[in-house]
Amino acid sequence: MGIHLREVRKSFGPRDVLRGFTLRVTDGETAAIVGPSGSGKSVLLKHVVGLLTPDSGSVTVDGAAVPELKGRALVRLRRRIGYVFQFAALFDSMTVAENVGMGLRRMPGWDRRRIRARTEDCLALVELAGMGDRYPAQLSGGQRKRAGLARAIAPSPRYLLYDEPTTGLDPVTTAVIDRLILRMRDELGVTGLVVTHDMTSAFRVADRITMLHEGKARFTGTPAEVRAAADPVLRGFVEGNPDLYFGAGRARSEDRAER
Amino acid sequence: MIESVLRPFSTLGVRFLALLEELGRAATLFAAAFRSLRNAGVWFPNLLPEMARIGVASVPIALFIATFTGIVMSLQASYTLTGAIPVYFVGTLVGKTMILELGPVLTALTLAGRVGANISAELGTMRVTEQVDALETLAYDPLAYLVVPRILAAVLMFPIVVLLAMTIGIASGWVTALQLLDMSSPEFVKGLRLFFDPWDVWFAVIKSVSFGAIVTGVGCYCGLRTEGGAEGVGRSATRTVVVASMLILCLDAFWAAVLL
Amino acid sequence: MDRRREALVGFVVLLGIAVAVVGTIWLQGGWRRSMVELTAASASVGQLVPGASVRFRGVAVGRVEEVRLAPGGDAVLVDLSVDPGLALPENAAVLVAPESLFGDWQAEILNRADFPQGEFLDYPQEGVLPGTALPDFSRLTATADEIARNLTVISERFEIAFTEETALNLKNAIDNIGEISNGLNEMIAQQAERFEDLSRGVNASAEELGAAARSARISFERVDSMIAGFDVGGIMANAEASAENVRALTEDMNASLEEIRSAAATADSAFGRFNALMASAEDGDGSLGRLLGDPALADNAAEAIEQMRALLADIQENPKKYLSLSIF
Ligand SMILES: Nc1ncnc2c1ncn2[C@@H]1O[C@H](COP(=O)(O)OP(=O)(O)OP(=O)(O)O)[C@@H](O)[C@H]1O
Ligand SMILES: [Mg+2]
Questions:
Q1: Torsion angles phi and psi, residue A220, rounded to 5
Q2: At residue C246, does pLDDT exceed 90?
Q3: Burial (Cβ within 10 Å: 0-12, 13-18, ≥19) of residue B4
Q4: Closest approach of chain A CAs to the CA of B158, in angstroms?
Q5: Does C220 reside within a domain?
Q6: Parallel/antiparallel/unpaired status of strands C128-133 and C92-98
């Protein structure tokens, strides 16, 4: 039934972050959200798992209205969603293996041995085999990010939310992670929502790409449609061209201000 | 003109409303934590480690403070009780004050620093690095996983630590009386027993249970409400110590008025 | 690692609980052996509370379990638990008395004949020991203290207010008070055997009393020499009224207490003579008032006597409270 956000608005104090954002991700599909830094991509993802509640609008996952869920229903939903945090958010009092096993410990039918096996599999998937005994502080930024990814996929969720899974990784590891995202979709039928600034990565993994701009979905389309789009904001962003993105006049005025 | 006259009042009003809001939020948090007691499967595995961290690890500092309090109490009692008052009253004074007041309150104030600030900084860091959010996405109830075991551990362990501190404090007062005040053991014990009432011990236990709840409760509340990076974490820790210490003293007066 | 931590937590918890339980029991006075229950009845119990020690020949043999009013409220019943090995003396009775000046009271088991002056309450019930309570010494010493202070004030004020002869008579009265204090001293000496610690405090008060009397006497002697030959004037009426008060007081004292009667009689005759003196001084328009020239002093004199009266009235109202120890 997928993920469905409709007219979501969210502001923090005077700052309007989301101003009527609408997005539909159907089952089995992987969607990418792109947008400049600070545009509200992470805020958006947090709405999907119920970490934030919208000021107005609706968020439904698997047909359930997320902001209204409480107690057991919320727990059940969250077991079906994996969340990869932008800065990994590993529990730093636990080893990497314990972190990865965290989501499994409370699930029925998972004993110690089965958790250990699953943990090792997941760590291998993100190229961290043998690092299970380390503590998060002993890992590099990229390793932490991958450990966070392993933690999110360990309980085999049906939905996976990736908050910039490849930012800060080298090109090879980026490719490995992209391939992992695709495998999730193709082999396990996972519905994915990938937040990224990395257009290469977005083109690689996404069935559809949505651009978040000024709190709204500025453009939604397949990678091919994005490449062909004429919208200067989208093109400016994809090509990394600030003149196009901000519009020629504005770019110049900013230059002046800087001087 | 009028503006400047009204400003203090409006500031006061804003402060007061903010305080009420804070109290409301704290009450909501604790009500939710209370409901989270149901999730025994979540908090129980954390209870024992927290008991070790909050209780057992606090024993040395509590005993250290109690030892010196006992010595000072004994010396000061003998300094104060001169003339017609018999010397065995040193024992009475040391025993009564250690059990009724200094044991529970000094220990709690110390632990407000040791335990409260620790919890606040730890949960604050978890909050600002999104570890609390991560717990939620892994379908853990953060209150059940983080708050409940800490408060429970403190409620269980504070009385134990206080009882040990009281004992050591009285013992050190006793030794001081023997060594420095030329009292005899029977004299000290006579004074100790003179006005002893088993209820005093219960009183101390009740007080320390409430102090444990206050210290960890404030620590968890401030920690979970931390905003804004390392600086925010530091602010939360400081706030925890200040607020918890104040509440301990208020509560102390409250219990004295209600229970004595 | 985990095992060790678990063990440590368990150990600390058990240690804390054990220390609390053992300490409490120990501070309460040790493990309770199987005890024998006794009950005693007394008209009052002073400040005896549960937990106080029970003594026999000075040895602690048990503790007070409960202090309660008898049905009807005309007696206090004290439940004691004592060593089963204790053989009660003949005519066993219970004396409730302060153990020291500091509020801790005890119940002493004794042979009634050992304390003949005690007014033991025989409670009409089988097995209840008769008991009595000594007065509360803190109140007694406080009163003695007050008497001493008042005497000082009186002597100071009288110093300048009376003629030679009056002074002489009053000196006699003061001597009587001196006797009273001697009596108190004697009583203290008697009590000293029983309450060694305590008596020191009371003794001090009694000495103060004596000292006050002495200083009063000295003042009057000085007055003797000072006032000879002066005219006694306007304050006579006031002084007479004061004398009237003194006489009334003396009567009260007479009526109230057998024990102080003889002392009071002496005082009475002294004040009688004083009265006559007043009258004669008035006839011969004496010069005392003019000597003083200040009516306020006369008021002071009257006031001092009034204080004395109030004090003695209190003694009269509650004679037992002050005097059952045969002070006089
Ligand atoms: N808890 C919060 N309180 C206040 N403001 C917030 C909060 N969370 C996010 N914001 C604000 O919302 C805006 C969007 O933040 P968000 O983290 O979603 O950006 P982003 O698109 O993920 O950026 P980046 O690509 O750099 O991660 C920011 O301006 C941020 O200041
Ligand atoms: Mg972000």
A1: -135, 130
A2: no
A3: exposed
A4: 24
A5: no
A6: parallel
**Does residue C313 lie in a domain region?**
yes
Query: Does a structural domain hold residue C89?
Result: yes
**Could you tell me how far CA C324 lies from the centroid of its own chain?**
9
How crowded is the C-beta side of C144, counted as CA atoms within 13 Å? Answer: 30
Name the strand (E) or helix (H) holding C189: helix C164-194
Number of domains comprising chain C: 2
CATH architecture for segment(s) A1-80+189-221? 3-Layer(aba) Sandwich (3.40)
Nearest CA in chain C to B50: C9
If you measure CA to CA, which chain B residue comes closest to A91? B131
Least confident among B233-242, C19-28, C131-140: C131-140
User: Could you tell me where the beta strands, DSSP code E, fall in chain C?
Assistant: 36-42, 53-56, 59-69, 76-82, 92-98, 105-111, 128-133
Any idea how long chain A is?
A: 259
**Count of residues in chain C:** 328
- Cα–Cα distances (Å) from A71 to A152, B32, B221, in that order, read 21, 11, 21
What is the rounded distance in angstroms from the CA atom of residue A102 to the CA atom of residue A154?
Answer: 9
Three-state SS string across B209-228, please? HHHHHHHHHHHHHHHHCCCC
pLDDT digits (tens, 9 = 90+) for C162-198: 555 555 655 565 555 555 555 555 554 444 444 444 4
Tallying the residues shown for chain B, one arrives at 260
Handedness of CA A120, A125, A130, A131 (dihedral sign): negative
Strand duo A81-84 + A30-34: pairing: unpaired
Query: Hey, what amino acid is at B67?
Result: T
How many degrees, rounded to 5, is the angle at CA B92 between CA B86 and CA B94? 120
* Sheet-wide strand order for A216-221: A81-84, A159-163, A191-196, A30-34, A208-213, A216-221
Residue B46 · residue B144 · CB < 8 Å: no
Task: Determine, yes or no, domain membership for C96.
Answer: yes
Per-domain residue ranges of chain A = 1-80+189-221, 229-259
- Give A75→chain B minimum CA distance, Å: 5
Per-residue pLDDT tens digits for A147-191: 999 999 999 999 999 999 888 888 888 888 898 889 888 888 899
Across C150-167, b (16+ Cβ under 10 Å) vs e yields bbbbbbebbbbbbbbbbb
- Residues near ligand 1 with C-beta < 6 Å? A 12, 15, 17, 35, 37-43, 86
Q: What's the CA-to-centroid distance between A40 and ligand 2, angstroms?
A: 7
Residue C259: CB atoms within 10 A of its CB come to: 15
Domain that holds residue C303: 284-319
Indicate yes or no: pTM above 0.80.
no
CA dihedral (C161, C162, C163, C167) positive or negative: negative
